[in-house]
Amino acid sequence: MPTKTPKSTGKPKDPKALRRALIALSLGLIVYGIYSGEVNIVLRKAIYMCLECIGIG
Amino acid sequence: MAKKKKKVPTRRLIQLFWAAASNSYVTGFAAGKLYQGNLKMVCAPGLNCYSCPGALLSCPIGSLQAVLGSKSFVLSTYVFGLLMLFGAVLGRMVCGFLCPFGLIQELVYKIPFLKKVKSFKNDGWARRLKYVVLILLVITLPIMFSGGQDADPYFCKYVCPAGSLEAGIPHVLCDRLQAGKQVVAPLDSSGSLSLQSALLTPETLSMGRLKVGLLYWWKIGILALTLLISLMTYRPFCKYLCPLGAFYGLFNPLSLYRLKYHENACIHCSGCENACGMGLDPVRQTNHAECVRCGDCVAACPTGAITMGFTHKKPAERPAARGKTPLKGEQS
Protein backbone atom coordinates (compact mmCIF):
# COMPACT_ATOMS: atom_id res chain seq x y z
CA MET A 1 0.00 0.00 0.00
CA PRO A 2 1.49 3.34 -0.96
CA THR A 3 2.45 5.72 1.84
CA LYS A 4 0.05 8.60 2.32
CA THR A 5 1.77 11.79 1.34
CA PRO A 6 0.77 15.12 2.89
CA LYS A 7 -1.44 17.34 0.80
CA SER A 8 0.26 20.09 -1.09
CA THR A 9 -0.51 23.50 0.34
CA GLY A 10 -0.80 24.92 -3.18
CA LYS A 11 0.81 28.24 -2.27
CA PRO A 12 1.90 30.63 -4.99
CA LYS A 13 5.60 30.92 -5.67
CA ASP A 14 7.75 33.73 -4.37
CA PRO A 15 6.25 36.87 -5.99
CA LYS A 16 9.57 38.48 -6.89
CA ALA A 17 8.31 40.70 -9.69
CA LEU A 18 5.50 42.17 -7.60
CA ARG A 19 7.86 42.78 -4.71
CA ARG A 20 10.37 44.56 -6.93
CA ALA A 21 7.61 46.71 -8.40
CA LEU A 22 6.42 47.61 -4.91
CA ILE A 23 9.90 48.53 -3.73
CA ALA A 24 10.42 50.68 -6.83
CA LEU A 25 7.01 52.33 -6.35
CA SER A 26 7.65 53.00 -2.68
CA LEU A 27 11.03 54.58 -3.45
CA GLY A 28 9.34 56.77 -6.05
CA LEU A 29 6.67 57.82 -3.56
CA ILE A 30 9.29 58.66 -0.93
CA VAL A 31 11.27 60.82 -3.37
CA TYR A 32 8.08 62.59 -4.52
CA GLY A 33 7.05 63.14 -0.89
CA ILE A 34 10.41 64.66 -0.03
CA TYR A 35 10.30 66.83 -3.16
CA SER A 36 6.79 68.09 -2.38
CA GLY A 37 7.72 69.13 1.14
CA GLU A 38 5.85 66.48 3.09
CA VAL A 39 8.84 65.86 5.33
CA ASN A 40 8.50 69.37 6.74
CA ILE A 41 5.04 68.52 8.08
CA VAL A 42 6.38 65.27 9.55
CA LEU A 43 9.26 67.13 11.18
CA ARG A 44 7.06 69.96 12.45
CA LYS A 45 4.66 67.51 14.07
CA ALA A 46 7.47 65.41 15.57
CA ILE A 47 9.64 68.08 17.18
CA TYR A 48 6.89 69.67 19.24
CA MET A 49 5.06 67.86 21.99
CA CYS A 50 1.95 66.19 20.57
CA LEU A 51 -0.65 66.94 23.22
CA GLU A 52 -3.14 64.54 21.62
CA CYS A 53 -0.62 61.68 21.84
CA ILE A 54 -0.03 62.43 25.51
CA GLY A 55 -3.74 62.69 26.20
CA ILE A 56 -3.77 66.35 27.14
CA GLY A 57 -4.97 68.05 23.97
CA MET B 1 18.87 21.88 18.21
CA ALA B 2 21.11 24.12 20.29
CA LYS B 3 21.65 26.37 17.29
CA LYS B 4 17.91 26.84 16.83
CA LYS B 5 17.26 27.67 20.47
CA LYS B 6 19.54 30.70 20.14
CA LYS B 7 17.10 32.39 17.76
CA VAL B 8 14.67 33.61 20.42
CA PRO B 9 17.28 35.39 22.60
CA THR B 10 18.78 36.94 19.47
CA ARG B 11 15.41 38.41 18.55
CA ARG B 12 14.95 39.68 22.09
CA LEU B 13 18.37 41.33 21.95
CA ILE B 14 17.47 43.02 18.67
CA GLN B 15 14.17 44.19 20.16
CA LEU B 16 15.89 45.61 23.23
CA PHE B 17 18.66 47.20 21.21
CA TRP B 18 16.25 48.83 18.77
CA ALA B 19 13.92 50.09 21.52
CA ALA B 20 16.89 51.60 23.37
CA ALA B 21 18.63 52.99 20.29
CA SER B 22 15.54 54.63 18.81
CA ASN B 23 14.73 56.21 22.19
CA SER B 24 18.24 57.18 23.20
CA TYR B 25 17.84 60.96 23.59
CA VAL B 26 18.66 60.86 27.29
CA THR B 27 18.49 64.64 27.71
CA GLY B 28 14.82 64.43 26.82
CA PHE B 29 14.04 62.18 29.78
CA ALA B 30 16.07 64.35 32.12
CA ALA B 31 14.56 67.66 31.07
CA GLY B 32 11.16 66.62 29.74
CA LYS B 33 12.04 67.91 26.27
CA LEU B 34 11.95 66.40 22.80
CA TYR B 35 14.73 65.75 20.31
CA GLN B 36 14.39 68.35 17.55
CA GLY B 37 17.01 67.22 15.04
CA ASN B 38 16.60 66.23 11.41
CA LEU B 39 16.42 62.50 12.17
CA LYS B 40 12.79 63.13 13.06
CA MET B 41 12.05 63.57 9.36
CA VAL B 42 12.35 59.79 9.15
CA CYS B 43 9.62 57.51 10.44
CA ALA B 44 10.53 54.58 12.67
CA PRO B 45 9.32 51.26 11.25
CA GLY B 46 7.49 50.31 14.46
CA LEU B 47 4.97 52.05 16.71
CA ASN B 48 7.12 54.53 18.62
CA CYS B 49 5.56 57.78 19.79
CA TYR B 50 7.47 60.83 18.54
CA SER B 51 6.53 62.65 21.71
CA CYS B 52 8.47 60.15 23.78
CA PRO B 53 11.20 62.27 25.41
CA GLY B 54 13.87 59.88 24.11
CA ALA B 55 12.54 59.38 20.56
CA LEU B 56 14.98 60.07 17.74
CA LEU B 57 12.57 59.13 14.93
CA SER B 58 8.96 59.89 14.06
CA CYS B 59 5.95 57.69 14.64
CA PRO B 60 4.72 56.41 11.25
CA ILE B 61 1.05 56.40 12.26
CA GLY B 62 1.25 59.84 13.84
CA SER B 63 3.07 61.20 10.79
CA LEU B 64 0.52 59.67 8.43
CA GLN B 65 -2.34 61.32 10.32
CA ALA B 66 -0.46 64.62 10.50
CA VAL B 67 0.05 64.76 6.72
CA LEU B 68 -3.42 63.44 5.81
CA GLY B 69 -4.98 65.86 8.26
CA SER B 70 -3.01 68.88 7.08
CA LYS B 71 -4.48 71.55 4.85
CA SER B 72 -1.59 71.29 2.40
CA PHE B 73 -1.79 67.59 1.41
CA VAL B 74 -4.57 65.25 0.37
CA LEU B 75 -2.37 62.14 0.29
CA SER B 76 0.81 61.25 2.06
CA THR B 77 3.17 59.81 -0.53
CA TYR B 78 6.22 60.09 1.74
CA VAL B 79 4.79 58.20 4.72
CA PHE B 80 2.90 55.69 2.55
CA GLY B 81 6.11 55.18 0.55
CA LEU B 82 8.14 54.52 3.70
CA LEU B 83 5.52 52.13 5.07
CA MET B 84 5.32 50.31 1.73
CA LEU B 85 9.10 50.00 1.65
CA PHE B 86 9.22 48.57 5.18
CA GLY B 87 6.33 46.28 4.27
CA ALA B 88 7.78 45.03 0.99
CA VAL B 89 11.21 44.34 2.51
CA LEU B 90 10.36 43.23 6.06
CA GLY B 91 6.60 42.66 6.28
CA ARG B 92 5.49 42.17 9.88
CA MET B 93 9.04 41.33 10.87
CA VAL B 94 8.87 44.96 11.98
CA CYS B 95 6.29 43.90 14.59
CA GLY B 96 8.37 40.98 15.79
CA PHE B 97 11.73 42.72 15.90
CA LEU B 98 11.44 46.50 15.73
CA CYS B 99 8.36 47.55 17.68
CA PRO B 100 9.00 48.76 21.25
CA PHE B 101 5.33 48.42 22.20
CA GLY B 102 5.27 44.84 20.88
CA LEU B 103 8.30 44.11 23.07
CA ILE B 104 6.53 45.48 26.15
CA GLN B 105 3.48 43.30 25.49
CA GLU B 106 5.68 40.24 25.05
CA LEU B 107 7.50 40.91 28.31
CA VAL B 108 4.20 41.33 30.14
CA TYR B 109 2.96 38.06 28.61
CA LYS B 110 6.03 36.31 30.06
CA ILE B 111 4.83 37.07 33.60
CA PRO B 112 3.43 33.80 34.97
CA PHE B 113 0.19 35.31 36.23
CA LEU B 114 -3.36 34.58 35.09
CA LYS B 115 -4.25 31.76 32.71
CA LYS B 116 -2.89 32.19 29.18
CA VAL B 117 -5.58 32.28 26.50
CA LYS B 118 -4.58 31.47 22.92
CA SER B 119 -7.89 32.04 21.18
CA PHE B 120 -11.56 32.61 21.86
CA LYS B 121 -14.85 32.55 19.99
CA ASN B 122 -14.97 35.19 17.25
CA ASP B 123 -11.22 35.81 17.61
CA GLY B 124 -10.91 35.96 13.82
CA TRP B 125 -13.55 38.67 13.56
CA ALA B 126 -12.02 40.64 16.43
CA ARG B 127 -8.70 40.72 14.57
CA ARG B 128 -10.38 42.59 11.72
CA LEU B 129 -10.94 45.51 14.07
CA LYS B 130 -7.43 46.77 13.37
CA TYR B 131 -8.33 47.26 9.70
CA VAL B 132 -11.31 49.39 10.78
CA VAL B 133 -8.96 51.41 13.01
CA LEU B 134 -6.54 51.89 10.09
CA ILE B 135 -9.18 52.90 7.56
CA LEU B 136 -11.42 54.95 9.86
CA LEU B 137 -9.25 56.59 12.52
CA VAL B 138 -5.92 56.84 10.72
CA ILE B 139 -6.97 57.57 7.13
CA THR B 140 -10.62 58.61 6.70
CA LEU B 141 -11.28 60.92 9.67
CA PRO B 142 -8.09 63.02 9.28
CA ILE B 143 -8.87 63.48 5.56
CA MET B 144 -12.53 64.32 6.24
CA PHE B 145 -11.81 66.93 8.89
CA SER B 146 -8.81 68.64 7.32
CA GLY B 147 -10.82 71.47 5.74
CA GLY B 148 -10.20 74.79 7.48
CA GLN B 149 -7.54 73.65 9.92
CA ASP B 150 -5.34 70.67 10.64
CA ALA B 151 -7.38 67.67 11.75
CA ASP B 152 -6.82 65.82 15.00
CA PRO B 153 -4.76 62.63 14.92
CA TYR B 154 -7.76 60.55 15.98
CA PHE B 155 -5.93 57.30 16.61
CA CYS B 156 -3.23 58.98 18.69
CA LYS B 157 -5.75 61.07 20.57
CA TYR B 158 -8.34 58.46 21.49
CA VAL B 159 -6.70 55.03 21.25
CA CYS B 160 -2.91 54.76 21.14
CA PRO B 161 -1.67 53.16 24.37
CA ALA B 162 1.94 53.42 23.16
CA GLY B 163 1.60 57.22 23.25
CA SER B 164 0.39 57.10 26.85
CA LEU B 165 3.16 54.78 27.93
CA GLU B 166 6.06 56.33 26.03
CA ALA B 167 5.02 59.99 26.14
CA GLY B 168 2.01 60.65 28.37
CA ILE B 169 3.33 59.15 31.59
CA PRO B 170 6.96 60.38 31.24
CA HIS B 171 5.94 63.96 30.37
CA VAL B 172 3.34 64.27 33.12
CA LEU B 173 5.76 62.78 35.67
CA CYS B 174 8.53 65.10 34.52
CA ASP B 175 6.16 68.05 34.65
CA ARG B 176 5.06 67.20 38.19
CA LEU B 177 8.64 66.65 39.31
CA GLN B 178 9.63 70.07 38.02
CA ALA B 179 6.57 71.61 39.70
CA GLY B 180 7.51 69.82 42.91
CA LYS B 181 11.05 71.16 42.76
CA GLN B 182 9.68 74.68 42.45
CA VAL B 183 7.66 74.14 45.60
CA VAL B 184 10.53 72.54 47.48
CA ALA B 185 13.21 75.03 46.48
CA PRO B 186 12.05 77.93 48.69
CA LEU B 187 11.13 75.57 51.51
CA ASP B 188 14.36 73.61 51.51
CA SER B 189 16.23 76.23 53.46
CA SER B 190 13.84 75.92 56.37
CA GLY B 191 13.80 72.14 55.91
CA SER B 192 10.08 71.99 56.45
CA LEU B 193 9.08 70.02 53.30
CA SER B 194 10.70 67.13 51.45
CA LEU B 195 10.45 66.67 47.69
CA GLN B 196 8.45 63.48 48.18
CA SER B 197 5.85 65.08 50.41
CA ALA B 198 5.70 68.11 48.14
CA LEU B 199 4.88 65.90 45.17
CA LEU B 200 1.98 64.37 47.01
CA THR B 201 0.18 67.57 47.90
CA PRO B 202 -2.92 68.53 45.89
CA GLU B 203 -1.37 71.95 45.46
CA THR B 204 1.68 70.50 43.66
CA LEU B 205 -0.38 68.11 41.61
CA SER B 206 -2.29 70.99 40.11
CA MET B 207 0.79 73.12 39.58
CA GLY B 208 2.28 71.53 36.44
CA ARG B 209 1.93 73.02 33.00
CA LEU B 210 0.23 69.87 31.69
CA LYS B 211 -3.34 69.74 32.88
CA VAL B 212 -4.47 66.15 33.18
CA GLY B 213 -8.11 65.57 32.31
CA LEU B 214 -10.61 62.92 31.28
CA LEU B 215 -8.85 62.21 27.97
CA TYR B 216 -5.59 61.46 29.75
CA TRP B 217 -7.25 58.98 32.10
CA TRP B 218 -9.21 57.43 29.21
CA LYS B 219 -5.92 56.71 27.44
CA ILE B 220 -4.30 55.48 30.64
CA GLY B 221 -7.31 53.16 30.99
CA ILE B 222 -6.73 51.77 27.47
CA LEU B 223 -3.06 51.26 28.30
CA ALA B 224 -3.88 49.51 31.58
CA LEU B 225 -6.42 47.28 29.84
CA THR B 226 -3.92 46.43 27.08
CA LEU B 227 -1.27 45.47 29.63
CA LEU B 228 -3.78 43.49 31.69
CA ILE B 229 -4.92 41.53 28.63
CA SER B 230 -1.26 41.06 27.68
CA LEU B 231 -0.92 38.99 30.85
CA MET B 232 -3.40 36.53 29.36
CA THR B 233 -2.95 36.66 25.61
CA TYR B 234 0.05 37.19 23.34
CA ARG B 235 0.34 40.74 21.95
CA PRO B 236 -3.36 41.72 22.12
CA PHE B 237 -2.83 45.24 20.79
CA CYS B 238 -1.01 43.85 17.73
CA LYS B 239 -3.76 41.31 17.14
CA TYR B 240 -6.81 43.50 17.52
CA LEU B 241 -6.04 47.21 17.30
CA CYS B 242 -2.70 48.12 15.75
CA PRO B 243 -3.18 49.96 12.43
CA LEU B 244 0.52 49.58 11.65
CA GLY B 245 0.30 45.81 12.01
CA ALA B 246 -2.77 45.87 9.77
CA PHE B 247 -0.86 47.75 7.09
CA TYR B 248 2.28 45.59 7.24
CA GLY B 249 0.15 42.45 7.31
CA LEU B 250 -1.01 43.22 3.78
CA PHE B 251 2.61 42.88 2.65
CA ASN B 252 3.39 39.67 4.56
CA PRO B 253 2.66 37.29 1.66
CA LEU B 254 5.18 39.01 -0.61
CA SER B 255 7.78 40.59 1.66
CA LEU B 256 11.44 39.83 1.09
CA TYR B 257 11.94 38.69 4.68
CA ARG B 258 9.64 35.71 4.93
CA LEU B 259 8.93 32.28 6.25
CA LYS B 260 9.37 29.26 4.04
CA TYR B 261 7.74 25.90 4.61
CA HIS B 262 9.69 22.91 3.30
CA GLU B 263 7.12 20.19 2.86
CA ASN B 264 9.68 17.46 2.29
CA ALA B 265 11.25 17.96 5.70
CA CYS B 266 8.00 18.22 7.68
CA ILE B 267 7.06 15.36 10.01
CA HIS B 268 3.64 16.90 10.81
CA CYS B 269 4.18 17.00 14.56
CA SER B 270 2.19 20.27 14.97
CA GLY B 271 5.02 21.68 17.06
CA CYS B 272 4.99 24.92 15.07
CA GLU B 273 1.25 25.37 15.49
CA ASN B 274 1.49 24.85 19.25
CA ALA B 275 4.38 27.31 19.50
CA CYS B 276 2.69 30.13 17.54
CA GLY B 277 1.56 32.88 19.88
CA MET B 278 -0.55 34.47 17.16
CA GLY B 279 -2.67 31.31 16.89
CA LEU B 280 -1.63 30.39 13.35
CA ASP B 281 -0.77 27.09 11.75
CA PRO B 282 2.51 27.96 10.00
CA VAL B 283 2.19 24.93 7.69
CA ARG B 284 -1.10 26.06 6.18
CA GLN B 285 -0.76 29.76 6.92
CA THR B 286 2.86 30.47 6.08
CA ASN B 287 3.34 34.24 5.68
CA HIS B 288 -0.22 34.94 6.84
CA ALA B 289 -1.07 38.60 7.53
CA GLU B 290 -1.21 37.86 11.26
CA CYS B 291 2.32 36.41 11.44
CA VAL B 292 4.67 38.77 13.30
CA ARG B 293 7.80 36.77 12.27
CA CYS B 294 8.71 36.02 15.88
CA GLY B 295 10.36 32.79 14.77
CA ASP B 296 8.85 30.65 17.54
CA CYS B 297 7.65 28.15 14.94
CA VAL B 298 11.14 27.96 13.44
CA ALA B 299 12.63 27.29 16.86
CA ALA B 300 9.98 24.68 17.65
CA CYS B 301 10.43 22.66 14.45
CA PRO B 302 12.61 19.59 15.11
CA THR B 303 13.46 19.04 11.44
CA GLY B 304 14.03 22.58 10.19
CA ALA B 305 10.99 22.39 7.93
CA ILE B 306 10.27 26.09 8.46
CA THR B 307 12.95 28.65 7.77
CA MET B 308 12.81 32.43 8.17
CA GLY B 309 14.95 35.08 6.56
CA PHE B 310 15.82 36.87 3.33
CA THR B 311 17.24 33.66 1.85
CA HIS B 312 16.36 30.05 2.60
CA LYS B 313 18.49 26.92 2.67
CA LYS B 314 16.66 23.79 1.70
CA PRO B 315 16.66 21.31 4.59
CA ALA B 316 17.19 17.57 4.14
CA GLU B 317 14.11 15.47 3.40
CA ARG B 318 12.18 14.13 6.39
CA PRO B 319 13.36 10.69 7.56
CA ALA B 320 10.01 9.08 6.69
CA ALA B 321 10.40 10.14 3.10
CA ARG B 322 13.68 8.26 2.98
CA GLY B 323 11.99 5.14 4.32
CA LYS B 324 13.12 5.60 7.94
CA THR B 325 11.16 6.12 11.11
CA PRO B 326 11.60 9.72 12.26
CA LEU B 327 13.74 10.02 15.35
CA LYS B 328 12.75 12.40 18.10
CA GLY B 329 14.72 15.60 17.73
CA GLU B 330 16.59 14.35 14.68
CA GLN B 331 18.39 17.25 13.05
CA SER B 332 18.20 17.64 9.32
Cα distance spanning the termini of chain A: 72 Å
Biggest chain-to-chain interface with counts: A-B, 40 and 67 residues
Shape of chain A: elongated
Q: What percent of the residues of chain B sit in helical stretches (DSSP H or I)?
A: 40-55%
The count of strands of chain A amounts to 0
Mean pLDDT metric of chain B: 87
Q: What are the secondary-structure elements of chain A, in order, as H or E?
A: HHH
Largest sheet of chain A: none
Give the averaged pLDDT of chain A, no decimals. 82
What amount of the residues of chain A lies in strands?
under 5%
Low-confidence stretches of chain A: 1-8
Using only C-alpha atoms, the radius of gyration of chain B works out to 23 Å
Q: What is the domain tally of chain B?
A: 2
**Class from secondary-structure proportions of chain B:** mainly alpha
C-alpha Rg of chain A (nearest Å) = 23 Å
Number of strands of chain B: 2
Oligomerization state: heterodimer
Shape of chain B: globular
Question: Could you spell the SSE succession of chain B in H and E letters?
Answer: HHHHHHHHHHHHHHHHEHHE
Instruction: State the strand order across the main sheet of chain B.
Output: 1-2
Structural class of chain A: mainly alpha
